[in-house]
Amino acid sequence: MNSKTPRSVCQSPNAPSPIRAGRPRNPAIDVAIQEAAKSLLAEVGCGAFTMEGVAARAGIGKQTLYRRWPSRGDLLIDLFYLDELQEPEIAPDLPAAEALGAYLDASLQRLYRPWNRNLLRSLAVTAQDDPLLREVMLARITWPRVEMGRAILRRLKAAGQVRADLDVEMAVDMANGAIWFHLLFMPDPIDAALRDRILRELLALAAVPSLPG
Hints:
Layout: H1 27-44, H2 51-58, H3 62-68, H4 72-80, H5 96-108, H6 114-127, H7 131-158, H8 168-184, H9 192-206
């Protein structure tokens, strides 16, 4: 995906979509919408998934739906994050192997689940012809991950734990590119073994050269 620096990447990847001011939300309606959205998604896929279809299936008005989710992209991505997985906390003093391993865990753990994996694959494909969906994906999935990886490598670089001449942006692109390549094209499972392979090569790429003798 696009590698230009975004205007804003402050939103956490699992942050809920923006909520408009108004009366307090009824959690039962939220659950009904999410269940209707999952059911519709299973039937028609991302390409034919519409907010109108979700509203009709949930038995609510479109305004009720749009007060909670301003776009179909926000709703679809909230479905991707609709689980109880906790993002691993990456302490600022972790050594390189642990910090980069935790970064890959944050990026990959949901993709170990077939439902999440299939949804993200469909989102990525559909976003190529849907600029609004692509914008939401970049803001809520791609850029937070990219900026997290860059921040970790910059910190490790400042601490002398990775090569002084490491191209931080390219290293992060390569790690994320491997994930997307396996997600979109490879038949092999996305699992802990893939995580370990990416980590091994990322550490080899970033390693401080040994002194001679």
